[in-house]
Amino acid sequence: MFTIKQHIARMGVVLAVAALAGCSSTPTYPPAPERTGQFDWNYLIGPGDSVQVFVWRNPEVSGSFPIRPDGKMTMNLIEDMQASGKTPTQLARDIEKALGKYIQEPIVTVIMGGGIGPFDQQIRVIGEAAKPQALSFREKMSLIDLMIAVGGITDFAAGNKAYILRAVDGKQERLGVRLEDLLKDGDISANVDMKPGDVLVVPESLF
Fold this sequence. Notes:
Distance between the termini: 28 Å
CATH topology of the largest domain: Outer membrane lipoprotein wza fold like
Order of helices and strands: HEEEEHEEEHEEHE
Oligomer: single chain
Number of domains: 2
Largest sheet: 5 strands, mixed
């Protein structure tokens, strides 16, 4: 049997824990804007990507080529060409220039064969996501698209304490997001646009 004082003390502990648990669902940082607005973005080739190079009327030079970890590629007749950080079109023009030493007026087309782009354009998810990983940014990508790609959050995640690290005017900002509201309550107002280079951090809950 509990005395009245013990009962009151016990209730005080329960209420304190409940209050802390309630705080854990409150976003810590200023909210991320729901819409990012229009911004210029083109897919850039990155280390680990692969490209299909087609040289018109020169199939012996054409082929599929990987981009090395140092950002360069080697293809038929061309060695150590910088590819990372360029658009496929820019790379095609550079290949044409290099092949011009061997082929008269070469016409080159570069098609992406796979990859996730350079590091500064990738979307990274770390912490208590089901499958933390780096992903390629896609046009009009939103937070819910990102959550589907990584399989949601774990049971230990403090979803409403999650935040996006985003470069804004040359500075790194922390922008709060409400993953629990979005995933568990279906609150579509918690969905926000993502931008190339965003890092989503999902912290662990204390309770």
